[in-house]
Write a structure and sequence with these properties.
By secondary structure, the protein is of the alpha/beta class. The chain contains 11 helices and 12 strands. The protein is globular, with a radius of gyration of 17 Å.
Length: 258
């Protein structure tokens, strides 16, 4: 059995680490480079970095911040935000990332997934999905809809159908974020995560809602996720990565201990 991964997420706005609730009310809380280094030292399995306003602002990602984070850590590093071409992906990988994450751009131009996989390998292509629960319709039979541009634009895409399509196009991993749970610290959207794990064969990262290690355990077991993304609970010092991993290990969840 592969070890489950604990992945801190750095949401970055204008070069500063930021955090909000349900994609609103973001406040700046620190320096992403210093924070990434701390989480690396603490035993994080990977780091995820999102430039959260790049797509909505129609600009490219801040490569200088990516470069500085990459130099500060020696674990896999995934970067997303404003990536819409293979050239954008290449620039981020050359800046030091091991993976690129596409979200809004993939919805607008799904071929970018295949182009990226062909250029850099599926293992380097993560499709990020921001998902909101909606009434079930013929177009969205699961009741989960993909939303892009930082939660600002509904797409009409059923999240499960989109996940399966992304896998077919060559995505190597999915990061599934529940907008409804994001930043609430009330637990992951386990039904969404479980359905995703049953729909695709590639790894699924659960995102949105972690409030304590038990929530992570639930996502990694009941939710069938391969990894759990965390933010608020470590950003604000409520829990530490070593403490989280010890808890998961004690519950019989296989994780990489130092």
């Amino acid at each position: 059995m592969l070890s489950k991964r604990v992945i801190p997420c750095l949401d970055v706005r204008a070069g500063k680490l930021t955090k909000g609730v349900k994609f609103q009310g973001n406040v700046d809380i620190g320096d992403p480079v210093e924070t990434a280094r701390k989480y690396y030292d603490d035993g994080a399995d990977e780091i995820v970095f999102y430039d959260i306003t790049a797509s909505a602002e129609g600009r490219g990602i801040f490569l200088d911040v990516v470069e500085r984070v990459a130099k500060a850590i020696a674990i896999p590093f995934s970067v997303g935000g404003g990536l819409s071409t293979v050239a954008d992906m290449r620039a981020v990988l050359l800046a030091g990332a091991e993976k690129v994450s596409v979200n809004s751009a993939a919805v607008k131009n799904p071929t970018i997934i295949t182009q990226g996989a062909e250029a850099f390998g599926s293992q380097a292509i993560v499709v990020g999905m921001d998902v909101k629960q909606v009434p079930k319709t013929d177009a969205v039979p699961s009741g989960y809809e993909v939303v892009i541009h930082g939660g600002r634009r509904y797409t009409g895409l059923d999240a499960l159908a989109w996940a399966a399509h992304c896998e077919d196009l060559g995505a190597g991993e999915l990061c599934v974020n529940s907008i409804d749970a994001d930043g609430t610290k009330e637990g992951y959207e386990l039904n969404l995560t479980r359905l995703m794990g049953e729909t695709v064969r590639i790894p699924v990262i659960a995102s949105g809602g972690a409030g304590n290690p038990e929530h992570m355990y639930e996502a990694l077991t009941v939710g069938k996720a391969s990894a759990a993304l965390i933010a608020s609970i470590v950003h604000y010092g409520e829990y530490t990565i070593p403490g989280i991993k010890e808890y998961l290990h004690g519950r019989g969840c296989k994780v990489r201990l130092r």
